[in-house]
């Protein structure tokens, strides 16, 4: 399931279009926040920090529901409620309200100061006091987002502590999936509050891979043709990943035999790229500075995954127009091809996809998959141990297989990203790229 992602403005529009009264939406959100806290840790002394806006209103509702469950709850208010809905929520809270600056820490800290829509950093005194209260807790919980995070681009507007649990409502926000924000969230819970959330932006879910035909043969499963270059180890990783990801046939064009490749992967000293059975070409891993290999690939009327060294050989992104291409750049390769684009990472990814008329897998700890038609897939959480040599080559091989198996370019790239992260979870923190292949 691909979970939709909405910006702060889109979320407000979805709430308005739902027809559900604001007070009812706040009641649902606060109740869901309380339920998540209860399931996560259970009854302990709790301090709810309430800001002046609707995020604070959610806090008052959550405090009421936690108190009803037997929690020892205190509410500390930064300021008087500023909206009618927040004032309604505060009026339903029967317990005392203490000033934020005088609040003492509690085992559970619930941050409802500021949620989505924040555009500037917290005042130094407020940020410092919040840090003290988070540090003094056993479990820190954020409502929607930790205070100090911008909701749409992943940036931190002021110092942000690490939380243990973040509960959001209706739909994910971009910052739930973007660095540096997402490293502060802890476990992320999405609560359903009855809003129909639809978007071209989404968190990538488990792929729907075409089933195998019981009467099929190896070419029905897809032929991936890999083009080798100066460093055989990288293309070997990619080819092995393609085979383990389910390609029926993997072939490597190489001028010299590559040691260690399984016998099932065919090595050839010719590049028969006009073979109609080829489902996808893969060029770039270990290529080095051999531009004619990329040129050869682009002359073939076949889908292509362009990775690693080959990205730097493209020249102008417009060169790729009219070709069926998936690009897989990391940050340095992205800048080399597209320059220093303005905007957030999602905006840069979509601009690059539009300019190159290619699907762009913008790699990193917050990988994005952008399509020229405006669709944008955000990678689900993946282990930090993926940051090791060769894992990008493995990703390229998986994506090439998904394309050869018949998935359209955008869907193939999203499937590859999801499978890559899932394999890393199974491989464990001691993995190297070779282990990642075994876990596909």
Task: Supply the helix-strand structural class.
Answer: alpha/beta
* Helix count, DSSP H or I runs of 4 or more residues: 12
What is the residue-averaged pLDDT?
A: 96
Name the strands of the widest sheet in spatial order. 1-9-18-17-16-15-14-13-10-11-12
What is the straight-line distance between the termini? 20 Å
The whole-angstrom Rg is: 25 Å
Helix content: 25-40%
Series of H and E elements: EHHEHEHEEHEEEEEHEEEHEEHHEEEHHH
Which residue ranges are poorly predicted, with pLDDT under 50 across at least 5 consecutive positions?
Answer: none
Q: Bin the strand percentage.
A: 15-25%
Question: How many extended strands?
Answer: 18
Overall 3D shape: elongated
Characterize the largest beta sheet: strand count, sense, and whether it forms a barrel: 11 strands, mixed
